[in-house]
Amino acid sequence: MAMIVKSLGRPISNFARKISSSSFVSTTLKGQKQPSIEGKKLTNLFSAINQALYIALETDPRAYLFGEDVSFGGIFRCTTGLADKFGKSRVFNTPLCEQGIVGFGIGLAAMGNRIIAEIQFADYIFPAFDQIVNEAAKLRYRSGNQFNCGGLTIRAPYGAIGHGGHYHSQSPEAFFCHVPGLKRLYQLAVEEVPEHDYMLPLSQAEVIREGNDITLVGWGALLAVMEQACADAAKDGISCELIDLRTLSPWDKETVESSVRKTGRLLVSHEAPLTGGFGAEIAASIAERCFLKLEAPVARICGLDTPFPYALEPFYMPTKNKILDGIKATVNY
Fold this sequence. Notes:
By secondary structure, the chain is α/β, with parallel strands linked by helices. 31% of the residues lie in helices and 21% in strands.
């Protein structure tokens, strides 16, 4: 499952790529130690998140982690071992009340603490919408910079998990990207991760695969599917450039623009519904910046404009074949 981080200031940690230099060991889902490759480890997402949270709590005594079920590891085991290490006064469970979780986090952060508030699934972030949009995002502005909750990070899993249905599969990023004062971070599910502690800037995209015929832009777990589509397209002689945006607010327009000026074509893909999805913002911006360089209309391969289904998930999702068809149609336009 892909992950979402919403941060209202400098991030507590770059959760998906920050690796502890301590003895906290990265493991695979089967419990096996992962090989080291040129100073990096192949680390799955939940292990990387766990270690980033470890770093945040270890390096800042005013850092706190709380949410539903986090004290025993959370539903995806991203917080395993943290309560035992740092104590239940710093890592603790909360009632099943998302509005309360975020409101409590805003208050603690406004007092100068570093807060990681977890929402168990992004689908359940909507009860906290008022706290996030009308309180957290506006506190610094409304107080003339006298108060802020810039130490607050809200972390939530988003997207399809396999038959999660319409309450455990939604991708609500566009709602929050529309709100000034919020920042959002996304990452791939599995990557090579440096073994030392470090950060990445919020606004810098990564070119995962270089190509000349078409630019593909995405984020989160879907990038793995897009990479498969690029590999299949290469068999037909189509050279794809694949970009991981990493962040959506702000998003790296310069990197995408530079790529599109080279390839002349753009395809954007995300799990969220097509209408009003963040892909529309990317398409509009690139059309404005690269109009004379575009050889075809910007393509969007996205989720359907329906609630997320139970049994028909493969029909809803942007699959490898759907993306591949979009690549071919755009290149042959």
